[in-house]
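hiii so um. not sure if this is the right channel but i have a protein structure encoded as tokens and i wanna go backwards to a sequence. like what aa goes where. can anyone help
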């Protein structure tokens, strides 16, 4: 089943980094791609800080991210939304989902499940309290589909490809999947442009949107930057932080990565001149249709 069509409305995109470290080149690709898609549609670009998981939050990272974006002339159109301040909204969504009869408590540990690709259903009939255990939502027998401009048509038989997934952990922290769905709804996001590493999250999010009767944004997944070892550029892989002193060169290289062809002399131009060219010449159909592109780690 295809996502519900969005009514005609103002394009609203977003960039949603987690404050687990500084922005790196891989982050910049997602920021630049989502920003330029919003500008091409004369829309708005919003910023969300996904600080939902306290152990992963690095002190000072949120303010450093904002500063780095500003130093690269990536300016957002509305106040920043912080997930850590959204707990009440996530709780209301969980209560709404509970009326579906699809939620169940789960006491399985990661160690118990490490040999299983999908959740094996251990706790579905255990009648465990939702208040004191992790909360999972049952995956129904259905196929979800989406047409991704860069990754092609995607189809997921939900029960076989995704399985029953967690929407709130046992420690009370709401899952990324639920939080993102609620935030996109509250921020009226119409288009989600992000890295292909999040493509597998899409069926979970579409499913939750359907169960909450939320509209589904148009999902588009950019290629991610990877190293020669096949791993994506990430904070976990110790990707180097962006050097704002070379902001024009960083933006120039991000545009090249995304299949755009800025004139070589713009690499040494001002950010204002470079962004003007980028906004006037952005071509979404030039973005490579592949999940990963190998680059030198920087």
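sure thing!! here u go:
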């Amino acid at each position: 089943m295809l996502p519900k069509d969005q009514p005609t409305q103002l394009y609203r995109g977003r960039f949603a980094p987690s404050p687990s470290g500084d922005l790196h080149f891989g982050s910049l690709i997602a920021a630049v791609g989502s920003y330029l898609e919003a500008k091409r549609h004369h829309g708005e670009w919003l910023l969300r800080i996904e600080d939902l998981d306290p152990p992963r939050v690095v002190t000072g990272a949120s303010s450093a991210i904002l500063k780095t974006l500003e130093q690269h002339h990536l300016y957002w159109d509305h106040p920043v939304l912080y997930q850590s301040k959204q707990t009440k909204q996530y709780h209301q969504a969980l209560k709404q989902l509970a009326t579906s009869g699809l939620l169940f408590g789960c006491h399985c540990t990661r160690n118990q499940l490490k040999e299983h690709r999908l959740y094996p259903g251990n706790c579905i009939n255990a009648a465990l309290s939702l208040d004191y255990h992790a909360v999972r939502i049952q995956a129904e027998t259905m196929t979800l589909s989406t047409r991704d401009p860069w990754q092609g048509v995607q189809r997921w038989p939900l029960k076989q490809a995704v399985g029953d997934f967690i929407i709130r952990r046992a420690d009370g922290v709401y899952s990324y999947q639920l939080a993102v769905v609620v935030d996109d709804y509250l921020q009226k996001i119409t288009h989600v442009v992000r890295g292909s590493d999040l493509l597998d999250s899409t069926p979970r999010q579409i499913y939750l949107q359907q169960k909450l009767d939320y509209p589904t944004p148009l999902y588009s997944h950019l290629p991610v930057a990877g190293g020669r070892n096949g791993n994506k550029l990430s904070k976990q892989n110790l990707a180097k932080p962006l050097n704002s002193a070379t902001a024009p060169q960083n933006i120039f290289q991000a545009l090249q990565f995304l299949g755009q062809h800025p004139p070589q002399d713009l690499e040494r131009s001002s950010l204002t001149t470079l962004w003007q060219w980028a906004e006037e010449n952005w071509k979404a159909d030039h973005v490579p249709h592949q999940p990963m592109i190998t680059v030198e780690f920087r």
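oh and The two ends are 41 Å apart (CA to CA).
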